[in-house]
Structure formats: C-alpha cells, structure tokens
Specification:
The complex is a heterodimer.
Chain A (H helix, E strand, L loop, with lengths): L4 H15 L7 E6 L4 H9 L4 E6 L6 H15 L3 E5 L10 H9 L3 E10 L3 E8 L2 E8 L2 E5 L11 H7 L4 E5 L11 E7 L8 E3 L2 H11 L4
Parallel strand pairs in A: 1-2, 2-8, 3-7, 4-7
Antiparallel strand pairs in A: 4-5, 5-6
Chain B lengths: L1 E5 L10 H12 L3 E7 L3 H8 L4 E8 L8 H11 L3 E7 L2 H13 L5 E4 L1 E4 L2 E6 L4 E7 L4 E5 L15 E4 L9 E8 L12 E5 L9 H11 L2 E4 L1 H5 L20 E5 L5 H4 L7 E6 L12 E4 L2 H14 L6
Helix pairs in contact in B: 3-4, 5-8
The chains are: A alpha/beta, B alpha/beta.
Chain lengths: 217, 317
C-alpha cells in the first residue's frame, strides 16, 4: 500500500525538523487495515522513530479518523501533528481541520512553508488568492501542501534498520469511540465521457474553428 | 428548518463564489439564511442582503473577525447551528479550511465538494480526481456541505431586501494569529470565474516564457492557469494552479499549452466547454480531452496564434 502523496510531505517535514535539532522524537501513525502498516514502515525507513497502527476494517470517514487520532494524541502528547492536506482518493480535505477542532488546537492548513520559533510556528499557507502567513502556538496541527518540501527516498540500509523499529498495534475497538459511517454511498458511476475531438493542421485552422465553429472567441 | 450559507467576503465585497454557494443552498431548501462574519463589514452585509435568494442575513462583527481564521469563525457558526438543518459554503480554500472545523464541533460527517443536489440529504460528488461520481446520502441530522462553485451558477446579485440581524460574537481564539496575506493583484479576470483560461505547463521551460501566455491571455481577456509542474518549477505562483490539488475551472474555452495532461490536471479542467491543446508530443494525454488539438512546438505556435488573433476584426470578451 502506498502513502497518500501529501502525507509524504508531512513525514518529510517532521524528519527535517528533527534533523535540525528542533524535535526529539517522531511517531508515525496510520489508521486502517493490515496492509496500511506498510505506510508506517516506510515512514520509519525515512526517519520516524516509532510507529503506531490503529487497526480498523471497512470504510472510515474523516470524522472517525480524526477521533481515532485524537485518542492517540492524548496518549502520546506530541507538540506538533503533521498531516497531508487531503487524500487523493476521496479528496475530502477534512481530517486535519477536524482533529484540531476536537483538540481545540490551532490549525495551519495547506502549508507551503514552516518556520519554527520558540513555542510557535510561522506558517505560509497556499490559498486561492495567493499566500497567507499565520502564527500558531504549539501544540498545533499542520496540514501539508505538496510544495512544502521534496520527500526523500528511503535508502536500503535504512529500510533494513526500519524493520527493527517498533510498531505498536492498537485495535480500534479498544479506543471506545463510535466510528460507524454516517454517509452511505448509494452509487458510483463513470462521469459522462467527452466527445472525441479533432486535430487541426495549423494555427490558422485552429483560430478559424474557435471563431466560426465553437464560437468562443 | 432553514439552510445557513456562510458568506465569503473581504468586509467590503462578497467573494464571487458566495453567489454560487447561494444557488446550491437554495436547491437544498428555499429558506436560505446567510451569515457574514467580519469587522466593519456593513458594506458586504448590505450586498449579501441584496441577493434575492437570501431570506435573512446574520451579521456578526468583532475585531478578531477582521481577518479570516477558521479557529475564530467556527465557534460563531456553531452557536447558530441549532436553528438550521444544513450549513453550506464553497469548497475553495476558505470553505475547505473552515467547514470541517464546524462539522467536528457538531459531530457531523461533512460532505465535501458536491457537484449536484439530488435531495436535501443526497448529493453527487466527484472522487478519484473526478474519474468517478459518487451519489452519497448523509444520515446526520445536521448536514455540513461544501459545494464545488463551478458546478453551480452564480445567483442574481441585486433586487433582494433581506433583513440584516446582528449575531453574537464568539470568544477570540488566542493561539492563532493572522500575520499577512499576499494577494496577487491583477487586472485579469479571476481564474475561478474567467470565461477563457490560457494555461501553461512544464513545456513552457521557464517563467520568462510565460510572457507568451500573458500576451495571448491579454488579447483574449483570459485568466492565466498553470499545471502543478509549472508551479513547482517556479515558473508562476501557486494561485494559478489548476487541478486536483489546485483550482477547478470550467471556462467556455480552456487552452492548454505545453501541458501533457496528467489526470491530476485533467481533474481541474476537463469539464470546460471547449478545450484546446497545443503540444509537440502527439501522444500526450491532454489530446484525449481536447476538442481541438494542435501538434506543434509551442514556441512557434504561440507567436502565430497571436498573429492570427490580431487579424480578427472582433474578439468576444
């Protein structure tokens, strides 16, 4: 199973911060079925110190995931939680914001730059109008944009070493929270296909078509 | 119960997608109220009250609402939520940042980025970068919905006379502070709402070369878009990115120049009415969605394109 791309940026940022001497321990957590553990193993191979795998079965909504991570955060007491800004399958873009609401922590979403100060962060966020900078006190949640950093690849020796690092397995039923889905998926269908277009021979033909056939210019 | 629309604004003007979100809200229930949270935001509240779809405006003002932070806005909306069946806003960076925080406070599973209202509890939304459409039904009593603005027409913006009521401000969230916003000012139309978008990709090879795109965009009165590859390479700023992790655009005409057409890019533009692709690689996937494809070196094609446009007597703007 592969890691969701912006979550690779989240792992990379945590590792960079530890390498800069500003963090002491990185805990990598995943929630999901047995094979989801591969993503924690990968995080351990690029620099995380220990892993946690909360075992679940079946579909999980972002609200449920955020409640699960809330439990882990309350136990592990991290200063910062890094997450990807959205999953590229369901594209919900919710979990980080929900987690920060549940914890009543600050949230810096869509982060493209992070400066760590004493007990706060200055985060540059990518927004529709351009860029925004906010200051958030620690503890806080940061959701990472793809431009935050360049995730590294694990080297073979590090992959081998990662096999010895601990992964704690937790059954979600032991956390005592309600994770039943609230949303039913009634149907999944293919979107309407576009009609096949044509190739034009040259720029003059293109402009004629746009003017006289499509009538868009 | 009525539907609550969250207005997006800069205290003076409504942001344009508020009109699209109002349309979506009215398709859920005709009784739409709108909340506007800001500081010295009377002008924007007045404009909101003029949308004929809005039956009532709730204006909440406090110094800590001058700039938008989800941490400050969410509790104010949660306080109002008891009176409403649905809370609605756009699935742009404003709504994406804010709505999940509200939903979690209300213990509601949010439905993100809907493209169609099927019934008050059932919606259509794209998944897998738009490669599938899911019909979803939410069983939560309180429904938090973000809407894809380009899938709903903007509503009328004048003629309405909704009452404006004052709402109660929440406490300030002191652990988050707004520092600054760097908005890229431009005379061109906004990317999200432009009738024509001209986009460049990695094939542009440099930021300097984007001036070829700028010329065409100026001539056509178009907005400028870009693929993620072009933004990552630093050719152009992030607010131009079109695609799964950028903006979704649905213009009348989308011109993709030097863009290969990865599915992540297609997710942001393939609903455009007419798509043109200019690319020297005849096998590029962008041609599979293009109505008009031109296999050519863009550095030869773009100057010719300008020359042909200059020959036209009139250009629609």
């Amino acid at each position: 199973m592969s890691t969701n791309p912006p979550d690779d940026n989240a792992i990379e940022e945590a590792v960079k911060i530890k390498e800069a001497g500003k963090a002491t321990e990185i805990v990598a957590i995943t929630v999901g079925e047995e094979k989801a553990q591969e993503t924690v193993r990968k995080a351990l191979a690029v620099g995380a110190d220990k892993g946690i795998h909360v075992k679940t079965e079946g579909a999980l909504e972002p609200l449920a995931v955020s409640k699960i991570i809330q439990k882990i955060v309350e136990k592990e007491k991290p200063d910062l939680v890094f997450m990807g800004k959205q999953a590229i399958d369901d594209d919900c873009n919710q979990t980080g914001q929900m987690l920060s609401a549940l914890l009543n922590w600050p949230q810096a979403t869509f982060a493209s730059n992070i400066e760590i100060k004493d007990n706060f962060l200055e985060v540059t966020r990518e927004i529709d109008e351009g860029l925004e900078t906010i200051q958030i006190n620690i503890p806080a949640i940061v959701t990472c944009d793809l431009r935050l950093n360049e995730p590294r690849y694990a080297s073979l020796p590090n992959i081998m070493k990662a096999k010895k690092k601990p992964i704690e397995e937790i059954n979600v039923s032991d956390l005592g929270i309600d994770i039943k889905p609230r949303i039913e998926q009634l149907k999944v269908e293919e979107p309407p296909k576009r009609k096949a277009g044509i190739k034009v021979a040259n720029v003059a033909e293109l402009v004629q078509k746009l003017k006289n056939e499509a009538k868009v210019i | 119960m009525a539907v609550l629309l969250i207005a997006e604004h800069n205290n003076k003007e409504l942001r344009p997608f508020t009109l699209n979100a109002a349309t979506a809200a009215s398709q859920i229930d005709a009784d739409v109220h709108a909340v506007i949270i800001g500081q010295n935001s009377e002008t924007a509240a007045k404009k909101l009250s003029e949308l004929p779809l809005i039956k009532k405006v709730i204006s909440i003002e406090a110094p800590h609402y001058e700039n938008f932070t989800a941490e400050n806005f969410a509790p104010a909306i949660v306080k109002l939520a008891g009176n409403y069946s649905h809370i609605v806003c756009s699935a742009n960076t404003f709504g994406k940042n804010l709505m999940p925080r509200i939903a979690a406070h209300l213990d509601t599973s949010q439905v993100s980025d809907i493209i169609k209202v099927i019934s008050p509890d059932t919606f259509l939304r794209p998944i897998y970068a738009g490669n599938a459409f899911a019909t979803v039904k939410t069983n939560d009593a309180k429904k938090c919905i973000t809407i894809r603005p380009t899938s709903f027409e903007p509503c009328e913006s004048s003629g309405g006379t909704a009452t404006i009521e004052k709402g109660e401000a929440g406490e300030e969230f002191s652990n988050t502070k707004f520092i600054k916003r760097e908005e890229i000012k431009s005379d061109r139309p906004e990317l999200g709402t432009a009738r024509i978008v001209v986009s460049g990709g990695r094939g542009m090879q440099s930021g300097d070369n984007f001036k070829l795109i700028t010329e065409v965009a100026d001539k056509l009165g178009a907005a400028i878009g870009a693929s993620r590859a072009a933004v990552d390479a630093g050719y152009i700023s992030n607010d131009h990115q079109v695609g799964q992790t950028g903006k979704v655009v649905v213009p009348d005409l989308y011109i993709a120049i030097g863009i290969s057409g990865a599915i992540q890019h297609l997710a942001g533009m393939k609903e455009s009415k007419v798509i043109v692709a200019i690319n020297k690689d005849g096998e590029a996937p962008i041609f599979s969605v293009a109505d008009y494809g031109l296999e050519a070196d863009l550095f030869e094609a773009l100057p010719q394109f300008m020359a042909e446009l200059n020959k036209l007597n009139t250009i629609q703007k």
